[in-house]
Amino acid sequence: MCGIVGYIGDKDAYPIIIKGLQRLEYRGYDSAGIALSQGSDITILKQKGKVSDLEEYAADKNRKGTIGIGHTRWATHGVPNQKNAHPHSSGDGKLAIIHNGIIENYDSIKRMLSEKGHEFTSDTDTEVLIHLIEEIKNHEQCKLFEAVRLSLNEVIGAYAIVVMEEGNKEEFIAARKGSPLVIGIGAEEYFIASDATPIIEYTRDVVYLEDGEVARVNRNEKLEIKTISNIRKNPYIHELEMSLDSIEKGGYPHFMLKEIFEQPSSVLDTLRGRINPETKEVKLGGLMDYEQKLTKANRIIIVACGTSWHAGLIGEYLFEDLARIPVEVEYASEFRYRNPIIKENDIVLAISQSGETADTLAALELAKEKGSTILGICNVVGSSIARLTDAGVYTHAGPEIGVASTKAFTTQVAVLTLMALKIARLKGTITTSNFRNMITELEMISDNVEKVLKSNKLIKEVAAEFKNVQNFLYLGRGYNFPVALEGALKLKEISYIHAEGYPAAEMKHGPIALIDEEMPIVVIATKMGNYEKVVSNIQEVKARGGRLIAIVTEGDITVKELADYVIEIPECSEQLTPLLTNIPLQLLSYYIAVMRGCNVDQPRNLAKSVTVE
Length: 613
Fold this sequence. Notes:
This protein is α/β, with parallel strands linked by helices.
C-alpha cells in the first residue's frame, strides 16, 4: 500500500521522483504528491488521482530542487482528496513528511497538540505525526534526527516515513516499523523507496531499514542509523539481484499478461537448483537446519491472506496427503485475534508475495511469542517476513507488478510441493517410485505450463462470450477446490464481476439455486481424483441450463460432450494439477477484464502490498 520515493544528490530530483512514483503505481493508490527544495523553502505539489494528474498539475509550478520526497497514497484516514494527499507539512511549514502505515494513537496525540495551539488542515494521522515532530523539535531544541527518534517513541502503529527540513538540501530522515523502506546508495547521492523498483535504475547497493530504526541520510556522509531507543546500528549493504528489464512491460500491453506468460520461466527458476537431476533428491537450503523439526512437527499452521491463502490451502492437501502432517490454514487477519492454541512442536508457516503483509507479520510475531518455530515463503529478498522468520524459502518469481497475483501464486504452490515431497521423503511416507515419478513430472512442469498457455486464443474467445455477465460460479474438488477459489478471486479483483468458488459437491447445498441459462460455471474436471463425481456435478448443472466452461485433462471425451467450452491441460499427477489448472483461469479473468475496459494492472481499491491492517 502507498509508495515512497526520495532523492538527495546533485541531479534534479523531480524527474527521478516522478519516474519512481510511476514504478510504484502497481502498489495501489488514489492520490500523489511531491515535496522539493533547493535548500530554502519547501515546495509541495499534490493532487487527487494518478501520477499523471500530479504531473499535469505540476506542469506550470516550481519543480526545482536537488532534494525531494514523493508519495502515492492509498486512503486510510480521510477521503482521497488534495488536502489529505501526502506530503504533509508541520504547522510552521518548515518540515515535510511522507508516510506509509497507520498511527493508531493519532487521535490522542492530536488532542494533546491541539491544546498546545496546533491547527490541522487535513483528516490524516500523518499530519498529526509531523506536528508531533515539530513540537518535540522545538521543545527539546534538538536536531531533526533526534526529534524524529523521540517522536516515534510516542507513536503506536506502523510506519515508513521520510522527513525533510527547510534550509537543508543535504539530508532527510527516514524511519520504519512494520512497513518496508529501502535506501539506495549512489555516488554522493541517495535514493529511498518502499521497494527496490524505483532504485534499480540508479544503483544496486541498498540498505534495508529494520523495524524500529531511524536513518540520517546525508549526501556528503555515510549513512547513520539508530534505533528509536538510541542504539547505534551498522548499516549492512545488500546488492540488488533484480534487473531493469524485469520491471518493464517488455512489449506486453499489461504487466499482468506479461507475468502470466512468464510462468514457465518463473516456475523453472523456483525449481532451479532444488532438484538434483541425477539423484532426483530435493534440496531446500533455507530449511536444511529445520528438516528434523518439520518431520517431527505435530502440526503445521499456515498463515496467509488472499491469493497466498489459496496457495496455503493447496499446501494443506500436499502436506497431509504426502507427508501425513496435520495442517490448518488460517487467515492471518483472524489468527492473531482469536487466541490461537500454538504448541512448541507446531510449525507456523507464513506465505506472502511481498513479505510485508501486515496481518501475516502480526500473526508471525504472535507465534514467535508463543515459542513456535516460524518459517516463511516469500518472493522479496530482504523483506520483513524473510527477516523475522527462523528460516524459509524464496520463490524466485521475480518482480510481480500486476496487483492481481499470478506467477507468485504458481511459484508458491511449486515451493509447497517441494517442501511436502522433501518432508515425505524424510519421513518415509511416500514410496521411492511415487517420489521419483513426481519429481520427474515436476522437472517437466515448466514445459507443460507453456503448453497450457497455447490455449490463449481459445480462452480469449471464451472471454468474449462471457464479458458482460454479472455472476460466475467456479467449482473444483480436492487439490483443485482452492484453484476454484483463486479463479473466482482473480475475476472479482480485475473485472469487478461477482464470482464465487465452491467445492463441487457443495453445489447441492445452496449454490445450485443460482444456476440458470444466464449463469456461467467454470468446472475443473481433471481425470485425477474424484473425476466421476465431478462429472455428476456437471450433469446436474447441465440439467438446469447452466453454461459450462470446463478445464479437463488432454484427451477427455466425457466432459467434452457436456461442456459448452473445454480447455485442456497436459496429464499429470493429481498433486501437480494446480500448477496447470490455474493458468487458464488467470487468462480468462485477464481477457474479460480487458474487454470490459478495466485497469487490470491497478484494479480499483486494491493495493499490491497490504502493509496496514
